[in-house]
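In the design runs reported in the main text, the only information available to the sequence generator was the tokenized backbone. The following block is the verbatim input for one such run; it is reproduced so that readers can re-run the procedure and compare outputs position by position.
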């Protein structure tokens, strides 16, 4: 695996992060006993954190910066997890199933945040919500049994009812 021409797959995790790869885990993994603000400060990689960007993108999280992260709702914890990754300038953002288990309203908020983040950094997104994929993805790769079964534009996949049924095993969605 290469990032900017440099091989990174054999580097320790902290070195990959130092090279500008942000990661938002599937299960949020916030530090529950620490405050929201402390969670964000721990994520800062250098002297130029993007605090204003985070405040604008996540006003609810900013307002709760003194609250213990473990007392946040699941959706708020997801927003905090995203904020931790976005507080830094990244060359690549890896986001693993950010809408898993969230209420529809929160799914929309996560989608807005990711769309805004995508303006500044490429995102590799693992997601099963087809509406989120339609909204955010330009290109998709569909895996089945660990093998690539489709690569192409998100529209080419999602606008083809047969492909959606064959590759994803779900009924076609309306645009």
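Verbatim output:
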């Amino acid at each position: 695996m290469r990032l900017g021409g440099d091989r990174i797959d054999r580097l320790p995790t902290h070195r990959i992060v130092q090279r500008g790869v942000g990661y938002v885990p599937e299960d949020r993994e916030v530090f529950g006993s620490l405050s929201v603000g402390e969670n964000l400060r721990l994520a800062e990689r250098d002297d130029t954190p993007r605090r204003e960007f985070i405040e604008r993108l996540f006003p609810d999280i900013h307002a709760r910066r003194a609250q213990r992260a473990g007392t946040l709702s699941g959706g708020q914890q997801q927003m905090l997890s995203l904020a931790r990754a976005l507080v830094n300038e990244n060359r690549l953002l890896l986001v693993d199933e950010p809408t898993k288990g969230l209420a529809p309203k929160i799914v929309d908020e996560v989608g807005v945040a990711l769309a805004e983040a995508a303006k500044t950094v490429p995102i590799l997104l693992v997601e099963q919500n087809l509406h989120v994929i339609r909204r955010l993805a330009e290109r998709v790769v569909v895996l089945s049994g660990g093998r690539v079964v489709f690569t192409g534009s998100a529209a080419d996949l999602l606008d083809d009812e047969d492909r959606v049924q064959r590759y994803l095993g779900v009924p076609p969605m309306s645009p």
